[in-house]
């Protein structure tokens, strides 16, 4: 993809926007762009530089993303809505053409990476609650204040905000940013570099951190901390919703098929029209994945049925039958359902209610399973208009519970150690 119309090749130390931004290391990439950690020499801060592919369709999509994220940033002057902030944008000409570039605030790992660190076992429920509150704050902001549907909500598009980042970590700024030539020694940004803890706390603290992180890992927290890792400082971490490349205004939907497969709402599959409530469906799938470590619905095509049909069957196995009126009400309903509202090609469904699944497969306690299912089930209503809004979800008792878990206690111990 590093050809005409494609990605712009970047090397560490490359500069952008008349020398203002200096590339430090690659943070990630997607279908549209590569994203680099860059040092902003004007403000002396680190930023995330998203460099779009250059072909016209990518340029057009960048213009759209800039338009949406500008609105998000402008209407949230106090930075309270848990959405990514756009700091600047410009064009950069390279050998592959002209690339739109977006400068975002620099964030940490995605919550998908967090699930991986936790070996796909699911995060402690208090942490799931904290992340859910952030996502719902964003959705409420998008839906009620701005009239925007995200359309691609999923763990990959939710990034952690770290309270210690490369621009304010004292140990980091001693070394300083790479200003011109690569030296190959950049550490991970976005978190607390364990190297630094070791220097400051010497032997005793090193043992304490190892002990705590091992205990924490055994309690279902993060994996044990090793040299060079980032440590998140516990209880009150926040996250932000990113990737507004596919977001749209509800009154001008831009595509029939939205959302990443596993997070796709039934009305999108059936093509019966979608609105804000489609984001709520993706939110519920994301919350389930955070709590269990597994995707809620992971459909696969079979010999006699399609991926869409498997997806609808999986939904009905957990949530019960789709009411006939809804099943037969979409533009694509005839492809999947007979006139009685039964799937044409998948006849036998194994109904396992959500709370049962949480107990049997994911070893939730009866109480935890019941409470979590109480929260999720209304959001997974097949009738989009019956789903609660983000604002209503924020009032749900499940989110406002707070039982201090052993993991949390260890986290606060750990963050105290880091502050000294
Ligand atoms: P997609 O195919 O998912 O639409 P895209 O080309 O639009 O991809 P993004 O999803 O915006 O690109 O970003 C690609 C990756 O770069 C992200 O998954 C993430 O790992 C990283 N990234 C993006 N923005 C930031 C940021 N502000 N801070 C840190 N990392 C980021
Ligand atoms: Mg993305
Ligand atoms: Mg995108």
UniProtKB/TrEMBL annotation:
- To which protein family does this belong? Belongs to the protein kinase superfamily.
What GO biological process terms does the UniProt entry carry, in alphabetical order?
A: regulation of mRNA processing; spliceosomal complex assembly
Q: Which UniProt keywords apply?
A: ATP-binding, Kinase, Nucleotide-binding, Serine/threonine-protein kinase, Transferase
PROSITE patterns in the cross-refs: PROTEIN_KINASE_ATP (PS00107), PROTEIN_KINASE_DOM (PS50011), PROTEIN_KINASE_ST (PS00108)
| Pfam families on file | Pkinase
What reaction gets catalysed by this protein?
Answer: L-seryl-[protein] + ATP = O-phospho-L-seryl-[protein] + ADP + H(+); L-threonyl-[protein] + ATP = O-phospho-L-threonyl-[protein] + ADP + H(+)
Binding locations of ATP: 50
Q: Does the keyword Nucleotide-binding apply?
A: yes
Keyword Metal-binding assigned to the entry: answer is no
EC no. given is 2.7.11.1
By its UniProt entry, which InterPro entries does this protein fall under? Kinase-like_dom_sf, Prot_kinase_dom, Protein_kinase_ATP_BS, Ser/Thr_kinase_AS, SRPK
GO MF entries: ATP binding; protein serine/threonine kinase activity
Give, as one word, the top-level EC class: transferase
What SMART domains does UniProt report for this protein, alphabetically? S_TKc
For this entry, the protein name equals: non-specific serine/threonine protein kinase
Identify the residues that the record assigns to the Protein kinase domain, covering every copy. Answer: 21-399
């Amino acid at each position: 993809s590093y050809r005409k119309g494609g990605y712009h090749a970047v090397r560490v130390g490359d500069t952008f926007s008349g020398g203002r931004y200096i590339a430090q290391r690659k943070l990630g990439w997607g279908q549209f762009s590569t994203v680099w950690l860059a040092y902003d020499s004007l403000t002396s801060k680190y930023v995330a530089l998203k460099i779009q592919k250059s072909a016209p369709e990518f340029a057009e999509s960048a213009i759209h993303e800039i338009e949406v994220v500008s609105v998000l940033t402008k209407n949230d002057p106090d930075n309270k809505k848990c959405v990514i902030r756009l700091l600047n944008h410009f064009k950069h000409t390279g050998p592959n053409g002209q690339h739109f570039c977006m400068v975002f605030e620099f964030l940490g790992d995605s919550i998908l990476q967090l699930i991986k660190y936790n070996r796909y076992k699911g995060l402690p429920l208090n942490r799931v609650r904290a992340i859910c509150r952030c996502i719902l704050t964003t959705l409420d902001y998008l839906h009620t204040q701005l009239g925007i549907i995200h359309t691609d909500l999923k763990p990959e598009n939710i990034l952690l905000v770290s309270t210690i980042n490369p621009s304010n970590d004292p140990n980091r700024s001693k070394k300083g940013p790479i200003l011109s030539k690569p030296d190959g020694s950049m550490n991970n940004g976005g978190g607390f570099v364990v190297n630094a803890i070791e220097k400051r706390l010497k032997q005793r603290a090193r043992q304490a951190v190892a002990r705590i992180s091992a205990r924490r890992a055994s309690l279902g927290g993060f994996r044990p901390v090793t040299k060079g890792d980032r440590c998140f400082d516990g209880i009150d971490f926040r996250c932000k919703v990113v990737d507004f490349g596919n977001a749209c205004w509800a009154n001008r939907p831009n595509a029939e098929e939205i959302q990443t497969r596993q997070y796709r709402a039934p009305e999108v599959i059936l093509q019966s029209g979608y609105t804000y409530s489609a984001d709520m469906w993706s939110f519920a799938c994301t919350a389930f994945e955070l709590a269990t470590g597994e995707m809620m619905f992971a459909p696969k095509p079979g010999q006699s049925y399609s991926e869409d049909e498997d997806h609808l069957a999986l939904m009905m196995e957990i949530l019960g039958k789709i009411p006939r009126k809804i099943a037969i009400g979409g533009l694509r309903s005839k492809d999947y359902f007979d006139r009685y509202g039964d799937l044409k090609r998948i006849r036998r469904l194994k109904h396992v209610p959500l709370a049962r699944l949480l107990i049997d497969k994911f070893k939730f306690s009866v109480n935890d399973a019941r409470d979590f299912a109480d929260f999720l089930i209304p959001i997974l209503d097949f009738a989009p208009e019956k789903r609660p809004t983000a604002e209503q979800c924020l009032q749900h008792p499940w989110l406002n519970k707070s039982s201090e878990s052993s993991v949390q206690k260890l986290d606060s111990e750990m963050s105290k150690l880091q502050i000294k």
